[in-house]
Amino acid sequence: MSKLFYDHLIVFEEIESEIDKSAKSPEEREELWGIVDEIVNHRVMAAILDKLPKKHHEEFLDMFHKAPHDEALFDYLKEKVGENVEELIKGEIGDLAYELLEEIRGKEGQKVSGEKK
């Protein structure tokens, strides 16, 4: 997948470890990472669009499609949303990481480091 403006906020070391343990082949590992990338992208974009006023959606999506790697998108979002979108994305990614770990491990409620109480 190409570089995205929020990639530096994604830290999935535990997920990588779990995928490495559970993938039976390099192809399966690649497929699992493809699924994770897709889920992350959907969740992050949904979180952004939920906060961004609807009148700016088209403009933001156009900017994103032209330069998905451009970290200046954070400046645009901060101006239009009026809050720190990086923190919003970090929170969304953290929640997602917890959900993914539960799913990969297949054990609801298993303790995960950094678990929310």
Jot down its keywords.
single chain; 117 residues; mainly alpha; 5 helices; 66% helix; elongated
**What gyration radius follows from the Cα positions, in whole Å?**
16 Å
Strand composition percent: under 5%
* Percent in helix: 55-70%
Low-pLDDT runs of 5+ residues are 108-113
Number of domains in the coordinates? 1
| Terminus-to-terminus distance | 33 Å
Largest sheet: none
- Coarse structural class: mainly alpha
DSSP strand tally:
0
Tell me what you see in this structure.
This protein is an all-alpha fold and about 120 residues long. The protein has one domain (about 5-105). Helix content is about 65%, strand content about 0%. It has helices at about 15-20, 25-50, 55-65, 70-80, 85-105. It is elongated, with a radius of gyration of 16 Å. The model is unreliable at about 110-115 (pLDDT under 50).
